[in-house]
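Input (structure):
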C-alpha cells in the first residue's frame, strides 16, 4: 500500500512538471510574438504618426512638417486658387485690386483673413495669425527670409510665366504630392470647356475678337494669355494681331491704331474708368464695328487678367457662355 502511494505521488509530480513546462513555453512564445509583431492598436498608432507628417518640395528642396498644415497663408492670388482646388484652402490670403477677394474665389473664402495686397503682404498681420505653412512664389524672393521666420514657407516657381494655367497648377500640385487630384480638377474643367465650346462656337466661327485692357494705357493682348479663345473656341484673330511672350504679354496701342484692328467683338478689361470714358468720347472708338454693333463686353479683371488657376478659368468659361452661348 505504501509502495502504491509512492508511485502515485511520483506520477503526479511528473505530470505537474510537464504541465508547468508547457505553460512556460506558451508564455515564451506569446512574449516573443508580441516583440516581433506589434498589436493592431500599436500598428494603427504607428501608421497614424506617419500619416500626420507632411512633406512638400519647392525651389529650396524638400521639407517635412510634423503634421499636415491646417492654417495656411497664401501670398499670391493664383496660388490661393490652386490651393482651394487641391483641398488646401488657406486661412489667410491677399485681396484683389478691390477691397475684398476676387468674386470667383469669394464663395470659397468665408472667414478667411486678408493679409494685404499681392506684393504688399503685411508680415505683422501674418505673424499675428500664426500660420503653420506659408505658400508663395519666386516673385517674393526678397521676402522669403521674413516669411520663413514666421512659419515654414513653400516657395514655388512663378506660375505666371507658365504657358498656361494647367502647367502652373500641375507644378503647385506636384510640390505637395497631389498630382492625381490636379488631374481630376483639370479633367472636370475640360468637360466644362467642351460644353462651353458647343454653345459658343456658332457665334465665334469666322468672327474676329480682340482682348483689350485699359489701365494707364490701352493694351492689346494676344496668344500668350488668350490663345485658347482662338484655337479652342474658334474666334478669328484680327489681321493686326500682337506678338506676345512671357516677357511681353501685350502691345500698347495708340488710339489711331484701333481702326486698323476693327474686330467684330471686343472683350474689355477695364481697370481705368477715366481713360475708358475719354476713349468712348472719340469718333475713332465710336466708329469701330464692335462698338457700333454693341459687341463690346466688359469682364472682370480679377479673373480675365489676374486669374491663373482652375477656378478663374471656370469663371471665364461661365462668362463666355453668358456672352456668346446660344
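Output (sequence):
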Amino acid at each position: 500500500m505504501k509502495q502504491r502511494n509512492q508511485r502515485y505521488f511520483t506520477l503526479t509530480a511528473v505530470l505537474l512538471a510537464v504541465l508547468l513546462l508547457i505553460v512556460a513555453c506558451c508564455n515564451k512564445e506569446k512574449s516573443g510574438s508580441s516583440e516581433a509583431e506589434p498589436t493592431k492598436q500599436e500598428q494603427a498608432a504607428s501608421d497614424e504618426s506617419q500619416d500626420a507628417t507632411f512633406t512638400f518640395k519647392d525651389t529650396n528642396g524638400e521639407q517635412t512638417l510634423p503634421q499636415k498644415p491646417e492654417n495656411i497663408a497664401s501670398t499670391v492670388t493664383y496660388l490661393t486658387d490652386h490651393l482651394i482646388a487641391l483641398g488646401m484652402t488657406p486661412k489667410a490670403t491677399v485681396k484683389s485690386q478691390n477691397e475684398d477677394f476676387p468674386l470667383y474665389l469669394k464663395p470659397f473664402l468665408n472667414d478667411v483673413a486678408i493679409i494685404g495686397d499681392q506684393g504688399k503682404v503685411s508680415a505683422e498681420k501674418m505673424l499675428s495669425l500664426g500660420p503653420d505653412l506659408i505658400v508663395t512664389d519666386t516673385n517674393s524672393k526678397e521676402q522669403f527670409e521674413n516669411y520663413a521666420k514666421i512659419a515654414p514657407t513653400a516657395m514655388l516657381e512663378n506660375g505666371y510665366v507658365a504657358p498656361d494655367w494647367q502647367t502652373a497648377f500641375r507644378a503647385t500640385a506636384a510640390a505637395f504630392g497631389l498630382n492625381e487630384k490636379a488631374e481630376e480638377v483639370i479633367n472636370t474643367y475640360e468637360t466644362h470647356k467642351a460644353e462651353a465650346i458647343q454653345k459658343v462656337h456658332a457665334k465665334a466661327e469666322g468672327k474676329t475678337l480682340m482682348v483689350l485692357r485699359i489701365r494707364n494705357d490701352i493694351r492689346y493682348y494676344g496668344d500668350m494669355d488668350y490663345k485658347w479663345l482662338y484655337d479652342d473656341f474658334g474666334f478669328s484673330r484680327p489681321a493686326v494681331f500682337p506678338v506676345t511672350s512671357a516677357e511681353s504679354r501685350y502691345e500698347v496701342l495708340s488710339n489711331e491704331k484701333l481702326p486698323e484692328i476693327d474686330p467684330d467683338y471686343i472683350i474689355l478689361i477695364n481697370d481705368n474708368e477715366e481713360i475708358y470714358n475719354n476713349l468712348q468720347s472719340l469718333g475713332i472708338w465710336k466708329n469701330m464695328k464692335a462698338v457700333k454693333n454693341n459687341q463690346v463686353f466688359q469682364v472682370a479683371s480679377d479673373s480675365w487678367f489676374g486669374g491663373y488657376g482652375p477656378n478663374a478659368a471656370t469663371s471665364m468659361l461661365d462668362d463666355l457662355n453668358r456672352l456668346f452661348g446660344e
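Notes: Residues 95 and 101 are 5 Å apart (CA to CA). DSSP finds 14 helices and 13 strands in the chain.
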